Amino acid sequence: MRHIFALVGLILALTIAGPAAALQPVTSTAPPPDVLAASAPPEDGETINVRVRDDETREDVAGVDVTVSFEGEVVGEGTTDAEGTVSFPVPQTGEYEIELDLETLPEELADLGVEENPFTTTVQPGTPRTVAFRLEAGLGDGSGVEVPGAGFFADIPWRLAPQYAVSGLRFGLILALAAIGLSLVFGTTGLTNFAHGELVTFGALVAYGLHVIAGLPLLVAAPLTILLAGAFGWFQETFIWRNLRKKQVGLIAMMIFSIGFSFFLRYGFLYLFSGQTFFYRDFSGQAGIPIGSVTIPPSHIFSMVLSVVVLLAFAFSLLYTKTGKATRAVSDNPALAAASGIDVDGVIRIVWIVGTALAALSGVLFGLTQGMNYLLGFQVLLLIFAAVVLGGLGTAFGAMLGAVSVGLLIELSTLIIPAELKNVGALAVLIIILLVRPQGLLGRSQRVG
What percent of the chain stands above pLDDT 70? Predict the structure, then answer.
């Protein structure tokens, strides 16, 4: 147990001390006005969030005029802020047209266009709608007219591959933090926990509540969130999952229970935080740092460095500490581990504490780099499962490798396929790999029957 507390202490120390130099707020701790509008629920109606980004540099574009129309009538006009975003409270659900005024683009981006302008989207009740416009060369005014000489492979922007690879690596490293807990819980208990995605949401929204609502600096709110998440993991194991195991509830029934528990948590978050998309106040609107052909904001650099350090610390703990060796023994054979004198229930409790804390940390980092809402964990849950299955069920190192592979596949696939289909492309590659190696990249073959 003392090794686990030492590991948690290391994570907290890194979280507090690491970003002090790299993540200085650009101006102040107050968010831009439009970000505040996106963070606060409108008094009446739904919300459309619009984001404009340069697809080549991955930088947000400020100062672009945006118009929202419903049934031919303009219901909202606004201009993107420093983060390339603008939010519109809309009067009702239904189909809306969102149009960019491309003449308001910055002079250096005047030759760029978008695939579809205006863009039609449907607003659903209780769920904010986010629309992202990607500015690309050779698309003209977005009216859908083909560029002469354009071809599927001829127009692949290979020059963007390094930028996409860095984005994929960042996403994969954060995803690995969440995947470890899911993999270890399956390895030690056999439970497929569909509520694991909500633990990611827990971290993001609790950190937002402590930071924005309670007024704590993010560098203080994040460590407190990790501690609260660890306590939440202990609570789940002590009062829910252990009782179900003692009553000899089957794994299928426990899995179904986890689905119901995920709905309970998800709509609890919706009730407490509404359906809006939130952003942290600190470290918003940072300019990217050019590193060769890649541009990376300081917050992204910090999230990547912290993820690598935490993953390495976890790997060291799993390989060389007494608790880590006991965890691997329970994962391999719980009955034999118990016969050898290992406290199996104690190991499972530690797995839940650490797994929930790491999932919460991934939620904080997701919120830092892309914003958050009550559906954050649900949106990445399938990718977490894909990472665990790809790496090998029940193996922590497999989950890490699988998560990084999924992150890279998702981002690099957008060089060839539309960004809206990038998750589909990654899952298709997952299927192909598992057809060749069903046990996953680091899993072991086992006889069945």
Answer: 82
User: Domain boundary residue among 140, 157, 174?
Assistant: 157
Specify the pLDDT at position 13: 45
Three-class SS of the chain: CHHHHHHHHHHHHHHHHHHHCCCCCCCCCCCCHHHHHHHCCCCCCEEEEEEEEECCCCEECCCCEEEEEECCEEEEEEECCCCCEEEEEECCCEEEEEEECHHHCCHHHCCEECCCCCEEEEECCCCCEEEEEEEEECCCCCCCCCCCCCCCCCCCCHHHHHHHHHHHHHHHHHHHHHHHHHHHHHHHHCCCCCCHHHHHHHHHHHHHHHHHHCCCCHHHHHHHHHHHHHHHHHHHHHHHHHHHHHCCCCHHHHHHHHHHHHHHHHHHHHHHHCCCCECCCCCCCCCCEEECCEEECHHHHHHHHHHHHHHHHHHHHHHHCHHHHHHHHHHHCHHHHHHCCCCHHHHHHHHHHHHHHHHHHHHHHHHHHHCECCCHHHHHHHHHHHHHHHHCCCCHHHHHHHHHHHHHHHHHHHHCCCHHHHHHHHHHHHHHHHHHCCCCCCCCCCCCC
* CATH code where residue 204 lies: 1.10.3470
Residue 446 located in a structural domain: no
88 in the same domain as 197:
no
Domain span at residue 97 reads 45-157
Residue 110: CATH number of its domain:
2.60.40.10
pTM of the model: 0.69
Intervals of the chain under pLDDT 50: 1-8, 10-44, 142-152, 154, 447-449
Whether residues 414 and 312 share a domain: the answer is: yes
